[in-house]
Amino acid sequence: MLNDTEVPTMMTEITIKRVKDNWIDEFSNLLDKVENKEFKKALSFYKENYFEGVSRFLVEPKTTGYEDLFTNNGFTDIYVDTYRNIGASFADWYAKSIGSLLKQQDVSGYNDIWEAAFAEEGRRIAGNRVTLVSGTAKATLKKELKRFMQDPEFMAMDERRQSRILRTRFNQYSNSQAKRLIRTEATNAANQGTMRSALDIYGKNELQKEWIAARDERVRSNHAAANGQIVDFDKKFLVGGEYLDRAGDPRGSAANVINCRCAIAPFPKQSDQLVDVLPPINPVPIIAETVKPNIRTNTSEIDFSKLTKKQLDDINKEAFEAQGVIVNSINSKSVASKKYQRVSENINKLLKEYNVSAPENTNIGIDISMLGGGKRTLGVVKRRLKLPNRNYPEGFNDYQLKEIYFGNKTPNNYGTKQMSKFKFDRHYSLHDEDKFDLYVSTHEFAHFISVEKMQSHRKFWDEFAKLSKEYYNEIDKYKYDSWTKVFIDGRERLTKIKDLNKLNDVAISHYAHTNNNELMAEAFTEYKLNKTPRKWAIKFGTLIDKYFKK
Question: For residue 267, what is the enclosing H or E element?
Fold first, then answer.
């Protein structure tokens, strides 16, 4: 027979079990309602900006003059509204359901506090996101308008037909991009709402939290495996090899966060203060409000080792387009997944560090491939010359970027060794052994940043020429002026090398001496991939940083 103290405890445990059983359904129903309201606002913003771009294009067909669209301020307002409204709705829902288990707790004055807190979180998240999101939208607009400009049949249509086709196309983009933005943030905002409410009602020392996976066929296997995992409120869940504070945690990888629909259920540990009556859900109304943005430029960390090729394609495309580089296609079919993960992480890191938005890189769409550039090349950056008496699209420049081949092979490591005793033949610059697979992508990225004939980078290349002259003057100290007979291992040889050991210590690489473009790329590769780059790699790398580092 149960005693008097065991009966309420048992009733509470039954009540909490019932709440947990219904949690994901109630959570999902409320999320669908509030998410839909925020989606409509985001959709309206996307359509307004895309359609304004269409109107300008119909007056004067071109792919420039759209920089004032998709402003960071406009996107920040969307993030602030989304976090404030969804977060406050879920905080109120929790307070009126699970929170009511605690006797004599009045949370009626918390709504204003919650709204302000979630609005600030929205501004913080926006600081990490808006530059990329805005850049993607602008790049999409330019890419599509360029594609239509190159279609003779479309350009021959009357303005009314052109307008209808363009609006239909950009309506589709508006829908997909708005949906992705809101869905990515909504789960995080909702779970922050319930957790903040629980924290204010119970205090973190009295709480634990449980991961509750979505109940549909789309749920990730790692998230399904995490279902039912319980930790203390201030601890993290282990999900797919990552430690997450909650579902939708922005510190998690894209594979763990994007489109996640899981819920976090915070529950009090102690049962002696609880009752077993739960009122129905009654979320607070959503109120829109304009908030001034607080722009930052940091980006969230991504665990590339957990991403599929398709996810890597999407992330790479967004990273390029965030700097205005329009990407027509990415070919990653022939590269191994592990290789692609490593190279993608390297490329994204470099894109965060360096400004590549020169007109020669951004005005015309490009193709990206993870293949080599041909039988004799591991990788290559292809550019186009502007020839006389030819018609080119608006914005086309001399040395306009066309294709980047980042390579699907790792070069032979003998290329980093000096083999001959009478000539300098170390082909590659020096870099750490564990980064040898990143050599090609880093080398080609340097060519992507700039090449010697780009008019927009004249000051850089003028200064580079002066530095390279100093470099070759030092190299020449270890060379003869003409072919000279020497005896090596008892044999007479002709050589121009006076001191091979010292030359090998100083020189960037044999390949670097091809021309200034290759000298720049080889020096940059050693500068980025060697823990202790040598003197000239540092000098050239510092010059590159001066002109191109963000």
Answer: strand 263-268
The C-alpha atoms of residue 64 and residue 42 are separated, in whole angstroms, by: 24
Radius of gyration of the chain (CA): 30
What is the C-alpha separation between 194 and 118, in angstroms, rounded?
Answer: 12
> Is 272 in a helix, a strand, or coil?
coil
Q: Which residue has the tokens 């000051």?
A: 459
DSSP 70-138: S-HHHHHHHHHHHHHHHHHHHHHHHHHTGGGGBTT---TT-HHHHHHHHHHHHHHHHHHHHHHHHHHHH
Q: Which of 43-57, 383-397, 466-480 has the lowest mean pLDDT?
A: 383-397
Helix/strand/coil (H/E/C) assignment for every residue in 392-444: CCCCCCCCEEEEEECCCCCCCHHHHCCCCCCCCCCCCCCCCHHHHHHHHHHHH
330-339 pLDDT, tens digit each: 999 888 888 9
Q: Tokens at residue 153, please?
A: 């049949």
Q: Give 523's contacts (C-beta < 8 A, 6+ positions apart).
A: 429, 508, 512, 536, 537, 539, 540, 541, 544
Indicate whether 6 pLDDT > 50.
no
| SS3 call for 353 | helix
List Cα–Cα distances, 450 to 85, 359, 406, 447, 530, in angstroms: 45, 11, 15, 5, 21
Report pLDDT digits (tens) over 14-69.
556 666 667 888 888 999 999 999 999 999 999 999 999 999 999 999 989 999 99
CA distances from 47 to 5, 167, 319, 349, 479 (A): 61, 9, 23, 32, 65
Structure tokens at 300: 């969230």
Cα(290)–Cα(77) distance, integer angstroms: 7
Say what the pLDDT of residue 285 is.
Answer: 35
Q: Is the dihedral angle over the CA atoms 334, 335, 341, 346 positive or is it negative? A: negative
| CA distances, 378 to each of 190, 370, 375, 429, 435 (Å) | 47, 10, 8, 15, 16
Yes or no: say if 206 and 47 are a contact pair by the CB < 8 Å rule. no
3-state secondary structure of 319: helix
Average pLDDT over residues 412-416: 57
CA distance 542 to 524: 9
Strands 366-369 and 327-331: parallel
Domain boundaries, the chain: 13-268, 307-548
207 CB contacts (<8 Å, ≥6 apart)? 198, 199, 232, 233, 266, 267, 268, 269
Q: Provide the residue type at 62 as one letter.
A: K
Distance CA 414, CA 510 (A): 13
Half-sphere exposure (Cβ direction) of 99: Cα atoms closer than 13 Å = 24
